[in-house]
Amino acid sequence: MTAPMGSAAQVVPYDVDAARSEIAVKVFKAGAASAFAHDHVLRATRWQATLDASAEPLALRAEVRVDVAALEVDEPATRARHGLDGALSDGDRQQVRDNMLGPGQLDAAAHPEIRFAATRIDRDAERFRLAGELSVHGVTRRVEVPLAIVADGDAYTARGRLRVRQSDFGIRPYSAFLGAVRTQDEVEIVFSLVAVPAGSR
Q: Using an 8 Å Cβ cutoff, are 107 and 100 in contact?
């Protein structure tokens, strides 16, 4: 079953419960000296989502906007939740954050928002695939995201992960010491979103 945004289905509005949801990006180390470096995880702390959905027939309209300047980097609890070993000092965390949000990477000052707008959802048995447009660093690319959706009463939890290349969005992966310490081009976006009928909270 397939349904594009703007389907004739009678969609209803949902609220995304930010307190029970998470959007994160995992960045992986590379280079000859990678044994002395860390993988990293960024967590969105300020973001907005709109969601209208119908289960039967399947249809969806959704948009997520993330405030780049509010991304937090390598919080101990977030690292543990995503299976990353080790902890960074506050000073190291700040340095990594400054690099990632600075002009050479995400450039939060020039590109303050990451945006995803869903354009289509497909279902095959109990598996879902969400297609849409992802805008990062002023560049928009079409992406497809496998989804696991679990119902709990009137609430729905959607979990997914998507790998994208930084270079596809005009970002040059971080590199230092002549490339001995660097990050991989491919990063992983991981999310868990809890949606409830609008006005029910």
A: no
Q: Could you read off the pLDDT of 66-86 as tens digits, one per residue?
A: 999 999 999 999 999 999 988
Give 89-124 pLDDT, tens digit per residue. 999 999 999 999 999 899 999 999 999 999 899 988
CATH of the domain at 114: 2.40.128.110
Domain that holds residue 137: 2-197
Domains in the chain, number:
1
CA 22 to chain centre: 8
Question: Whole-angstrom Cα distance, residue 125 to residue 122?
Answer: 10
Contact present, 64 and 49 (Cβ < 8 Å): yes
